[in-house]
Every structure is written in C-alpha cells, then in structure tokens.
Specification:
single chain; three-stranded antiparallel β-sheet; 50% helix; alpha+beta
Length: 157
C-alpha cells in the first residue's frame, strides 16, 4: 500500500503541475470583442452617386402671406445600377417632381415660421426631411445636399 502511495503521489503532483502550466494552451480563452468584430464578414461599402436636380423656386400663398423659397439640391443615390436606372430622362423627371412635391409640403407647413427665423432654418434638418419624404417612393435615395437656399416671407394686400 505504501508503494502505491509513493508512486501515485508524485504522479498526481506532476499532473497538477502540467495542468497548471499547460492550461492556457489546452483551454483557450474567448476572443475579445474587437477580434470578433474583425472576423465578421464586412458589408461592402455602398458607393453614392451624385445626381444634381437643379434649382427650384416655390411660391406658397396663404391668406395674407407669401413664402418664396429658392433651392439648389443635389441628391445622392446608392449603387451604380440604381443610378443608371434613375439617370435616364424619365427617372430624373420623376425624382425631380417628387422633390418638388416634398419641398412644397415642407413650404406649406413652414408658413408659421417668423420672418427672422426663416433665414436661420437648419439646412441639415431640412435635408433630412426632404430625404425622408423622397425615400418613401425612391428607396435608393440615401442623402441630399442643399447647395443654395433662400427664403423670404412677404405680406400681401
């Protein structure tokens, strides 16, 4: 019995030491979140194609106030196939008409804005509203840029 203990005890100690030192190699720890993010397949970046729509001039008449708005807008379309489809004469006309309709809706709701505040309208918020309205009918429209914006309110007699 003593011989068995004398043989078993050193074997147990050697196995404990081997387990202690070899544990990082046997049981690998979970990778950190940055490494996992690098291993995930990345979505290809979508190319945005610029489509200038030109200048728009709107006049909205309500009661005793006139609102004149001048816009120069560029729309950015995602994907070359969608751009080619929309770049034709009919596609550009449909997109331009939808943009005019979106701006007209915004202009009709902007009549409550004071004369002083109309020049201080945040262009970014205005672009977001235009793109949101365009996205309903043209989901390929990703963003837009207002190159020129002027608005005046006048009182009618």
């Amino acid at each position: 019995m003593k011989k068995k203990l004398l043989i078993a005890f050193p074997i147990i100690l050697v196995m404990l030491a081997a387990g202690y030192f070899l544990e990082p190699y046997i049981f690998q720890s979970a990778p950190d979140s940055e490494a996992v993010a690098d291993m995930e397949p990345k979505k290809p970046k979508v190319m945005l194609f610029k489509m200038p729509l030109g200048k728009f001039t709107l006049q909205v008449v309500k009661d005793k106030r006139n609102l004149h708005m001048n816009f120069n807008i560029d729309v950015y379309i995602a994907g070359s196939a969608e751009f080619e489809r929309m770049n034709g004469a009919m596609g550009r006309v449909k997109l331009r008409d939808a943009t005019v309709a979106a701006i007209a809706e915004i202009a009709e709701t902007a009549l409550w804005v004071d004369r002083e505040d109309i020049q201080n309208i945040d262009r970014r918020v205005l672009v977001e509203d235009i793109v949101r309205r365009l996205y309903r009918t043209f989901p390929m429209v990703q963003t837009a840029r207002i190159n020129e914006f002027a608005a005046t309110v006048s009182v009618r007699e």
